TrEMBL record:
It holds the Pfam family ABC_tran. Residues 275-299 have a biased composition (Basic and acidic residues). GO terms for molecular function: ATP binding; ATP hydrolysis activity. Keywords: ATP-binding, Cell membrane, Ion transport, Membrane, Nucleotide-binding, Translocase, Transport, Zinc, Zinc transport. This is Metal ABC transporter ATP-binding protein. Residues 26-241 form the ABC transporter domain. Residues 255-299 are annotated as: Disordered. The keyword Glycoprotein does not apply. One of its GO terms (biological process) is response to zinc ion.
Amino acid sequence: MNLPHHAARAAPAVTQATAQGGEPLVETRGLSVKHGERRALWDVDLKIHPGEIVTLVGPNGSGKTTLLRAVIGAVCPDGGHILRKPGLAIGYVPQKLAIDRTMPVTVDRFLALGGATDTASRRAALDRVGIPALGGQQMATLSGGQFQRAVLARALLRRPDLLVLDEATQGLDQPGVAAFYRLIEDVRAELGCAVLMASHDLHVVMSASDRVICLNGHVCCEGTPTVVSARPEYRALFGMGTEGTLALYRHVHDHRHDKAAEPGAGQPEPQGCCGHDHGHHHDHEAAPGAAHETEETGR
Ligand SMILES: Nc1ncnc2c1ncn2[C@@H]1O[C@H](COP(=O)(O)OP(=O)(O)OP(=O)(O)O)[C@@H](O)[C@H]1O
């Protein structure tokens, strides 16, 4: 791939040990974010080290997008700190990218509009993400998977130290999801960038991440996929299906927490809960297409 500055970087053999070493690229300390009166995040401590793949998992409304947008600087903290390594380059693949379908924009033009003036680099980026022949095609005519690859190519052209992806595989079928995550792993291995992503694709996430952070307004638990998937907080959020299979469950509360001792007391709470021994019944509803995925935590 002919992405000049990255090409010069040695592809690191990222292991848990190396990934945890050195100065973090980004660190949040006691981060809290409010949307209006509603507290979306509180007390979030997070460190992203060079070369590691970190995945945020959590129910709908648990603050994943808010945290990612705070990390890239698109959302202002209401409390706490965000520290970024000086000169940090971030590539961002948003959850939804609205493109006016009536506006004719080729893939190549889309990349150029993102600031990539060099034709050879744009070609190399499309090559890297597996759509080398689509430069002249209209963005509006791309499939979901091709579209996300084009958006990824644009993010890579920023030569990121940190690639931030927000549910980038939404709308893709299972083979498309798996292929996209394989691509992310290849990109990380080749370019040496760290990856911070939010995802609902637990099956793939658990096999493709160095570290998983289980979020529900605050950090419920974190660690390697193997460690996190065994934690009661994680299981309270995502549940265990029959025969040891992992299912993505949506928590529906039929009770109120004792919020007196919690941050954000008196405010509407995110769906789901963790880190508390509730001793009550939850109504679980399997998310569409995600039920009974085989647990696969080994790397
Ligand atoms: N711009 C906004 N204005 C008001 N409230 C918002 C805004 N953005 C998010 N929220 C609220 O903040 C909370 C966290 O939202 P966020 O999108 O970060 O969660 P999420 O975990 O990414 O959800 P999902 O998995 O559904 O994408 C939700 O309750 C949401 O309704």
